[in-house]
Amino acid sequence: MKKIITALLLFVGILSLRAQDHIAFQKIGFEDAKKQAKETGKLIFLDGYTSWCVPCKWMEGNVFNQSQVVQYFNTKFINVKFDSEAGEGIAIAKNYQIRSFPTYLFINGDGELIYRTQSKMEANEFLEQGQRANMREYQIPLLKAAFLAGDRQPNFLLRYILVMNNVDQALAEEGRKALAGVANDNFLKSPDGWEVIKMMARSDQDKYARFFLENKAYFKSIAKPEDFEAKETYLIRYAMYGFIRDGKKADFDAGLVYFSGLKGAEAKIEIALFRAEWVGIQGTPEEFVRVTNELRKGVLKEEDQRLSFIARRFAKDAEKGVKNIKLRQCYVLAKQAVQLNPNDYSNQGTLADICIQLKKKKEAVKAAEAARALAELETSKIIKLADALLARAKSI
Questions:
Q1: Most CB within 10 Å of its CB: which of 44, 116, 356, 363?
Q2: Rounded distance, CA 131 to CA 387, Å?
Q3: Are β-strands 103-107 and 113-118 bridged in parallel, bridged antiparallel, or unpaired?
Q4: Which range (146-160, 175-189, 290-304, 368-382) has the least confidence?
Q5: Whether residue 14 is found in the same domain as residue 126
Q6: What single DSSP character describes residue 283?
Q7: Which DSSP category does 136 fall into?
């Protein structure tokens, strides 16, 4: 009997340690969670996930086990999780309009949505989102009421847009229109104005990006270096696609010089993708072959998804026929992607599609069958697409 009691105590201790090392999700129904929320005055934290969601699994293994996150969420919330495609989770997903995964809801004891956020994020950002859920100035019902009552202070509108971006895009757009009318130069040079620019400057066609570009020296002096670089890089990246589309070679080359000055391997990969995009749109088929061969043997030689993307991108627009130079080069890129990673649905699907165009039936069927097998790990929509791809391959 003593041994049994000791074993039970040890088991309980292990479970306790596990709870301390991870967000403690309770295995209870939604009604029970609401009852606990009413009794404790805490909000419910609800993780809306699916069994196939890769970012959901990443969050489980990399964020939900971080000490600061664990301490805050286990102290401040009633934590529950529901598969949005199974059991009670289906009704919850429908009621709260969960359409992307993961989606995180913060709900009070009456079932009212108080805060909402979504997608994969790092631990510090996730913790900040949880903290905001408990701050009245970020809570959805209060923000909606204040907006309807006519609050148009820029600082308020910034919070309103930040929250509504994850709730309702129509409401967020109303906030953006209101902010555009009151965000004058003095506000844009304030700390909250910089937050607006970080969030809303998208291209040189909008007022926030133009203001940033016209006042770069000022913002560089007041912003964190990493924030300034991130916004500058974002706007130049956006502009690069315009340069490519319009054939502005001098501007495009200047953009490459900018990206070559950035640190890290990702900048080199981005330059490679820009070069492929330029030559794919503005170059001859022979130039496309030469440049993409250089890239696939160099900076992209281990980048299966990037190679597959280039192949898919330009095979779609290539002239049909087995003699087409660009299409045959897309086949080379797609085949290399599959050799690097045969267990990726997109890689196999891209190769199968290109082989169909090139009338390579045996290879098309093989790749399409591999894609169909991998589709079992994806959504029902992807499975249907894989079925159609296999049918096309077999009909050659």
A1: 116
A2: 45
A3: antiparallel
A4: 368-382
A5: yes
A6: S
A7: G
Residues in contact with 110: Cβ distance below 8 Å, sequence separation at least 6, in sequence order: 34, 38
Q: Are strands 103-107 and 43-49 parallel, antiparallel or unpaired?
A: antiparallel
Same domain, 7 and 130: yes
User: pTM for this structure?
Assistant: 0.76
Residues 345-367 have pLDDT tens digits of: 999 999 999 999 999 999 999 99
Nearest Cα neighbor of 188 from 173, 209, 204, 174 is 209
Q: Where are the beta strands (DSSP E) in the chain?
A: 43-49, 77-83, 103-107, 113-118
Confidence at 13, pLDDT banded by 50, 70, 90: very low
Residue 20 near residue 54 (C-beta atoms within 8 A): no
Nearest by Cα to 64 from 12, 117, 20: 20
Same domain? 98 vs 12: yes
CA dihedral 155, 160, 165, 171 (to 10 degrees): -130
In degrees rounded to 5, what are phi and psi of residue 215? Answer: -130, 35
Q: pLDDT of 101-139, one tens digit each? A: 999 999 999 999 999 999 999 999 999 999 999 999 999
Q: Are residues 235 and 279 in the same domain?
A: yes
The domain tally of the chain equals 5
Domain identity same for 280 and 358: no
DSSP sequence for 184-200: -HHHHTSHHHHHHHHHH
Considering the domain architecture, whether residues 56 and 110 belong to the same structural domain is answered as yes
Which structural domain, as residue segments, surrounds residue 376? Answer: 302-396
Nearest CA to 280 out of 239, 238, 323, 309 is that of: 309
Query: Looking at this protein, which amino acid is placed at residue 388?
Result: A
- Cα–Cα dist 143/139, whole Å: 6
Radius of gyration of the chain (CA): 26
Contacts of 192 (CB under 8 A, 6+ apart): 154, 155, 158
Average pLDDT, the chain: 93
Q: How many CB atoms lie within 10 A of CB 117?
A: 21
